[in-house]
Amino acid sequence: MAHNWPSVVQVSPGLQETHRAAIHVILRMRYFVAKKRFQQARKPYDVRDVIEQYSQGHLNLMVRIKELQRRLDQSLGKLTLFQTSSDKAKDKGTNTIGSRLNRMEDKVGRYSMLHPLNR
């Protein structure tokens, strides 16, 4: 596998033979490294690695969702905290954030009507 490196020979004809040999070795090393990287890029993925990465990403996503839910519960209150039994029966299917906000605003509105500020 003799390679012909005309660019090195043409560009610098005054180089010594040892310098040319060193340049050829460096170029061959760069070629083999590039070839290895190309073959690794073409290699199919290991299914176990893909599943492990997916599981790790899913776990991270679930942790973020739980943290967000905890923060919402902390700021809006838990779902059952402000609900009476009649509210639970009425809003059985609406456990959305909007319905929770509406219930909290209704409670605050009722409280402010019952207990106006005395100035």
Order of helices and strands: HHHHH
Q: Quaternary arrangement of the chains shown?
A: single chain
Mean pLDDT: 79
Number of helices: 5
Shape: rod-shaped
What class would the helix/strand composition place it in?
mainly alpha
Percent helix range: over 70%
Strand content: under 5%
Number of domains: 3
Which stretches are poorly predicted, pLDDT < 50 over at least 5 residues?
none
Biggest sheet statistics: none
Q: What value does the Rg take, in angstroms? A: 35 Å
- Distance between the terminal alpha carbons, to the nearest Å? 98 Å
Number of strands: 0
Question: Would you give an account of this structure?
Answer:
The protein starts with 5 loop residues before the first helix and ends in a 5-residue tail after the last helix. The radius of gyration is 35 Å and the shape is rod-shaped. The chain has helices spanning 6-11, 17-42, 47-76, 85-90, 97-114. The mean pLDDT is 79. By secondary structure, the chain is mainly α.
